[in-house]
From TrEMBL:
InterPro entries: IalB_sf
Annotated protein name in UniProt: Invasion associated locus B family protein
Species: Pannonibacter tanglangensis
Keyword field: Signal
Tagged with keyword Signal: yes
Signal sequence, renumbered to the chain: 1-23
Gene3D superfamilies: Invasion associated locus B (IalB) protein (2.60.40.1880)
């Protein structure tokens, strides 16, 4: 059942990416010359009927039309009073990697994930819930994904993350 649930989640993210791709725009180059951003983040909600209609808070990166880059999709959802984070890596992600959720310099949480590229993973914990509950509506949050080896680092600034999480309070 767990595999079905996670498979459904990844399929949902893929469907969102396929249907919400926007018009092509010039990519912002990094100092290394890599394409840094060729799309936009979409924040929304979905309901998984297979898990008793739990509200899922979704964040997925939607590449612009024609862009070849794929970036990680981040999905937050609540289960058993824990905020769980599902990461579907993109082509620029190489395992092992770690994800840092940061509100500001004083509030950050780093979560290691020893997974394989191209597979979905779930990182969970009450510490994640405690961190996100400190966020206020409209506050800027940053999700930073980087390889442990330090070869690549991507930082995503997500306006509206707190508002999206507020729509789905964690309840048992």
């Amino acid at each position: 059942m767990t595999g079905i649930r996670f498979g459904f989640m990844v399929a949902t993210l893929a469907a969102i990416a396929a249907t919400q791709a926007n018009a092509a725009e010039a990519c912002t180059e990094t100092s290394e010359g890599r394409r840094f951003q060729c799309g936009e983040w979409h924040v929304g909600r979905d309901i998984d009927e297979m898990t008793d209609a739990i509200n899922w808070t979704l964040m997925t990166y939607v590449p612009n039309a024609g862009a070849t880059d794929t970036w990680p999709s981040l999905s937050f959802f609540c289960r058993n009073e824990e905020l769980m984070l599902l990461v579907a890596p993109g082509t620029y992600v190489f395992a092992p990697y770690e994800l840092t959720l940061r509100i500001d310099a004083a509030k950050a949480l780093t979560l290691p994930y020893q997974g394989a590229p191209g597979t979905a993973a779930v990182i969970r914990g009450k510490a994640v819930k405690a961190l996100t509950k400190q966020m206020t509506a409209g506050q800027l949050a940053r999700a930073r994904l980087n390889t442990i080896a330090g070869q690549q680092t991507f930082t995503f600034e997500l306006n509206g993350l707190a508002d999206a999480l507020a729509l789905t309070p964690c309840k048992p």
